[in-house]
Amino acid sequence: xxxxxxxxxxxxxxxxxxxxxxxxxxxxxxxxxxxxxxxxxxxxxxxxxxxxxxxxxxxxxxxxxxxxxxxxxxxxxxxxxxxxxxxxxxxxxxx
Length: 95
What we know:
The chain has one domain (2-69). It has 3 helices and no strands. It has helices at residues 2-6, 8-64, 77-94.
């Protein structure tokens, strides 16, 4: 307090210097934090989005009955048309 009375200019510049150093320290912490947090957030968002796509696709495949088709059976054109017709009718029901 007495320093401010005896030498106000020097005291103000000292406080300004402390503020700049503190601000630089906080800015450094925030930049490092954002360099870590933002990529992790994007990774978590990507994993969640991919998981949602897989789960929803599995539900649709199960609902349409496509999961019951085995690999060793030959699918004819008529069966594919029938599956497409079933899929279109179920999609229309969902709307």
